[in-house]
Amino acid sequence: MPMKLYAHPANYKTHKALIAAKYVGLEVETPAGAAAAQTGKIPVLETPQGCIFSSAAIARYISRINRQVALYGQNLLEGGMIDSWIEFCTHELEVPLCTWVLPKMGVFEEVPEATACAKEDVKRALTVLNNHLLHNTYMVGGVRGPRLCFPRFFEVALPRDAFQRLRFAESVPGLPRSS
C-alpha cells in the first residue's frame, strides 16, 4: 500500500520527497486537494505507523527507508555529513533563493535591498558547493563506487552551469537504482 503525501504537487519542497521516494523504490501517492488534519500544515506524509510533517523531515525519512540504496549514507558519520550539507543547502542556499525568486513569481513584494543581499548569499553558497565539488565527485562518500546521496536533491533544481564540474549531472543516469 503506498504512503500518501499531502502536499502541493508543484512545490519544489514536495519534489525533494518524491525524488527520494522514486530513487529508493517507494510508492507515494499525492492525493489532490487533500489537507493536513493534525497540524494544519502541509506537506504531511501519512505512513501506516503515523504521520510525518515538514518537507525536510519527510525527505529524510524516505531517504532512510531503503538502507541498500544508502541515500542517507552507509554509516553514522556519512549520515551526519549529509545532515550538515542539508542544513547548509537549506539555510545558505534555499532561503536566499526564495528571497530572490519568490518576488519574481509574484508571491510577495520585492525588497531591492533584500534581493541584492540574497544574490550575494547565493553566490557565496554556490562558491562553497563548487569548491567542494572541485575536489569531490559527490557531496558525501563515493569512494566505494558511484552512488547518489540525499543532499544532491537540494541541488538538482540549480542551473546546469552553476558548477564548474558537472560530473554528478553526467553520472546520475548511470547510477544503480533500486528495483
UniProtKB/TrEMBL annotation:
This is GST N-terminal domain-containing protein. Pfam families: GST_N (PF02798). PROSITE patterns: GST_NTER (PS50404). Residues 1-70 form the GST N-terminal domain. InterPro entries: EF-GSTs, Glutathione-S-Trfase_C_sf, Glutathione_S-Trfase_N, Thioredoxin-like_sf. It comes from the Eukaryota.
